[in-house]
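Why predict the complex rather than its parts? Because the way molecules touch one another can change local conformation, and only a joint prediction can capture that. The input here totals 377 residues.
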Amino acid sequence: MNELVLTLGWLGIYAPMALGAAASAIGCSIAGMASIGAMTETDGGYGRFVGVSAFPSTMVIYGIVIMFTLNRDVTPENAGGLFGIGILSGIALMYCGIWQGRACAAAINATKEKPEIFGLALAPAAIIEGFGVFAFVFALVISAGIS
Amino acid sequence: MSDPDAYISLISSLPGSERLFVAKQPPLSRLRLDRRLTALKPEDARVLKVLEHALNWSDYDMDVTDAQAIQRCKEALRDIPQPTLRKLFLERMDLRTVVAALRLRNQGGSPPVGAYGVGRWSRHIPANWSDPSFRLETPMPWIKEARQLLDAEDPLGLERLLLSVSHNQLKRHAARHLFDFEAVAIYVLIWNIFDRWAQSNAQDAAKRFEKLAKQAMAGAADIDFEGVSA
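Output of the joint prediction:
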């Protein structure tokens, strides 16, 4: 039984990093595909498209920081806490990354027609980033209570 | 439900559908559109072909009968699995059924008994034949204007009204689809409307040119061309 609990603890430590990496990969690929499509239709502003498509890469950074914060000796007493915080923050980061990628793709698709709305079109992606930051910060705060 | 991210690159590589109607020059030719559509999966390309084949008037022979057209629509409906595309297809069929009934009544016809249309209103219309709008003002608020244009014998105005109604229907569905196959199919259907719109404008321009030319020639009857009186 202890082995299973310890395994869950280790899973919780690595989950934010793994799920954050998956989120960034999916999100960046979604936004990246939109920027490639937009480049074939427009005559300029390619750098902006590529820059926007890199937005979801922040999720893996949050995941790495959470992983380092959770990283400690895993004991039967702290394994449950590590598992809960790690898995749930990882899932939150993953959803934020995927949907941020979609929001970025929509922004790229819209700004290829109307470059003047570039800033406003990024607002949904920025708001989603805010939710990712919430998941990140409060994972750090809560993890301070785990022995 | 299609994969929501299936055609991100394809959709992003197409000019916005709104731009089609404001541009002086077509921003995307059919040739270029077809080249972009090669990115579709074979099964999606087949569905799109079926949809266009059933909706485009240019794909119908001049002597096609009502029964043949209805049969083609029913066959198309069997081959379209996406709920949104089925819905917009049926909406277009409803529109065509109502317009067919309006034209029939305008020519003094009696309520149709056999096959004349497809969709949920095909039985409702004969039952309300004497009502000016077939009691369909609520689901189809454009019907009154269509009837007036038909009475005024303004086919171009009617064509534009119907294109505008179809365009609005497509835009309503497009709002729920960003990068999936439905979004691609709706884009192509909007492109087809734009194409028809552009053609109707060209016809309008040709008519106006002919009228002006006649007026000018009438006034020029007495002009002396190179010393030779007309």
